[in-house]
Design goal:
It contains 8 helices and 7 strands; from the N terminus they run E-H-E-H-E-H-E-H-E-H-E-E-H-H-H. It is an alpha/beta fold. A 7-stranded mixed sheet has the order 3-2-1-4-5-7-6. Helix 2 runs antiparallel to helix 7. GO terms for molecular function: ATP binding; nicotinate-nucleotide adenylyltransferase activity. Catalyzes the reversible adenylation of nicotinate mononucleotide (NaMN) to nicotinic acid adenine dinucleotide (NaAD).
Length: about 230
Amino acid sequence: MGGIGILGGTFNPVHNGHVRHAVEVAEALGLERVALMPCATPPHKESAGLLPFALRVELLRAAVKGIPFLKVETLEGELSGPSYTWRTLNEWARRHEGEPLPYFMMGAEAFAALDTWNHGLKLPQVAHLVMVPRGGDDGSVFHESIRSFWPGSLPEVCDVPLGRETVELAGGGRCTFLPVPRLDISSTFIRARWRSGRSLAALMSAEELAVLHAHAEEVSACWATARPR
């Protein structure tokens, strides 16, 4: 298939779950590369406890070291104001004029809430959306969201997707339901282990752990905790 994937997030911090997620989607879609794009100023999250953008970028670069098709994209750090996905992807399109639309990855919860995002229902104009489920009833979430947001894109009755499914949207654009293997790790879990002084081995790369410990005082102040062993 080729093309470029985009995995956005606060990455506070990035961990092996993020990296493996990007690898799995890249292989499943046959992408040339995936850009991991840290959010500079989250519009819907408190900034308290969020590592500085430059440090999150440094951690990301350490995390993807040695994986040539994973790149770190700092576009949102170059834009002022809240980091709205609509604005970011339009800027991406401006900088990559003439290139195919990127594949923008998101989870089921975010996909189901697109109508609350800034111009969220217009996103298929600037990117192919890829919903990566966590399991459970996420196939129903995929279909129900498409029926609600883009009426006429699906027949009245159709099976809930168990495997990969791509839907061409009424009005243009497409969404793909893409189950891939996942590592059940969260940034919240990482921060909690840091606060309690637990080991982060095997949850992050050795290179990333070295960066965290090199900035331990700053990280601990940001996450309101002491440095782990």
